[in-house]
């Protein structure tokens, strides 16, 4: 059985690790990365890098490489590849599972302002603060480029490119982040508003706690929905169980 993991997340890597640890001779695992990050943390097993060429290209790739199942373990905000995966699965009949870590939920003391897009978040900012901690990734900075007044602390894995806000400092870093580190960052830069995607997960959640403790407003960008009809699990263990169940279905009783 050949499984394709569409990756680029901690969960995708953990799934590849757990499948590799199983060392099953009847299971071949290929992880796919978009190639956005300069030095990605590579999962074990086979790895391919770069786009497929849209939904049609992905469908072709599934056929050419005899893929039996696909796990879409991409980031909750990687909407294009998820919709391409749903459409390629529908045309080829290859089973597809979405692995999505749950979104964050506000708790008492949080001052959250929800936005449907980066543009909407940019529209909210002038009424919320003047020193912004922007953690939405380097590729969406254009949405904030027209904001001349606020100062931005932009944290990203790789250096951003123009268009970007005119007044900004870039902090190159990659999670997981600690609560104490996030507290210090907010204090040191006198941050008065945080902007984040609802990425979910523990690695980048301490910024939310630090903002809550400091009483700061947080602009939270809502996730795009998982394409309809795609079964979804919340953690790598459940995705591994889905693959194991398919492996069992695909073997005869004497082979088990
Ligand atoms: P996207 O907008 O959904 O995808 C744009 C295009 O990139 C896709 O159409 C596809 O190209 C290619 N692509 C995306 N993920 C791929 C993968 N795993 N393997 C091969 N090709 C892939 O995605 P994005 O938001 O740019 O994110 C790119 C990657 O970074 C994703 O894999 C995601 O898991 C990871 N990531 C994203 C975010 C985020 O906030 N968006 C955060 C952390 C990590 P073709 O159409 O040519 O196939």
Can you characterise this structure?
This protein has 256 residues and is of the alpha/beta class. The protein has 2 domains: 2-102 and 224-255, NAD(P)-binding Rossmann-like Domain (Rossmann fold), CATH 3.40.50.720; 111-221, Rossmann fold, CATH 3.40.50. It is 30% helix and 21% strand. It is built from 7 helices and 12 strands. Strands 3-2-1-4-5-12 form a 6-stranded parallel sheet, sandwiched between helices. The chain has a 6-stranded parallel sheet with strand order 6-11-10-7-8-9. The protein starts with a strand and ends in a 6-residue tail after the last helix. Bound molecules: NADP nicotinamide-adenine-dinucleotide phosphate (NAP).
Describe how the helices and strands are arranged:
Elements: E1 2-6, H1 10-21, E2 28-33, E3 46-49, H2 54-64, E4 69-72, H3 79-92, E5 96-99, E6 111-115, H4 118-124, E7 131-134, E8 151-156, E9 168-172, H5 179-188, E10 193-197, H6 206-214, E11 217-221, E12 232-233, H7 236-250
The protein binds NADP nicotinamide-adenine-dinucleotide phosphate (NAP).
How many structural domains? 2
Largest sheet, if any? 6 strands, parallel
The CATH architecture category of the largest domain equals 3-Layer(aba) Sandwich
Q: Tell me, what is the CATH class of the largest domain? A: Alpha Beta
What's the assembly state of these chains? single chain
Distance between the termini: 14 Å
CATH superfamily of the largest domain: NAD(P)-binding Rossmann-like Domain
């Amino acid at each position: 059985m050949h499984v394709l993991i569409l990756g680029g997340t901690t969960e995708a890597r953990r799934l590849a690790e757990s499948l590799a640890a199983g060392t099953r001779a009847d299971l071949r695992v290929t992880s796919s990365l978009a190639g956005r990050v300069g030095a990605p943390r590579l999962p074990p097993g086979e790895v391919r890098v770069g786009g497929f060429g849209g939904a049609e290209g992905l469908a072709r790739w599934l056929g050419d490489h005899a893929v039996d199942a696909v796990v879409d373990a991409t980031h909750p905000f990687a909407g294009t590849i998820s919709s391409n995966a749903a459409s390629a699965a529908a045309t080829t009949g290859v089973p597809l599972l979405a692995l999505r870590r749950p979104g964050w939920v506000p708790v008492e003391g949080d001052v959250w302002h929800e936005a449907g897009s980066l543009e909407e978040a940019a529209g909210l900012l002038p009424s919320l603060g003047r020193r912004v901690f922007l953690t939405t990734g380097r590729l969406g900075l254009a949405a904030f480029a027209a904001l001349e007044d606020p100062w931005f602390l932009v944290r990203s894995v790789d250096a951003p490119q123009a268009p970007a806000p005119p007044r900004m400092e870039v902090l190159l870093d990659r999670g997981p982040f600690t609560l104490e580190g996030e507290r210090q960052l907010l204090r040191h830069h006198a941050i008065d508003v945080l902007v984040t995607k609802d990425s979910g997960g523990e690695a980048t959640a301490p910024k939310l706690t630090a903002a809550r403790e400091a009483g700061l407003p947080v602009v939270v960008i809502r996730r795009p929905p998982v394409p309809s009809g795609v079964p979804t699990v919340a953690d790598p263990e459940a995705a591994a169980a889905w693959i194991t169940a398919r492996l069992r279905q695909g073997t005869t009783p004497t082979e088990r």
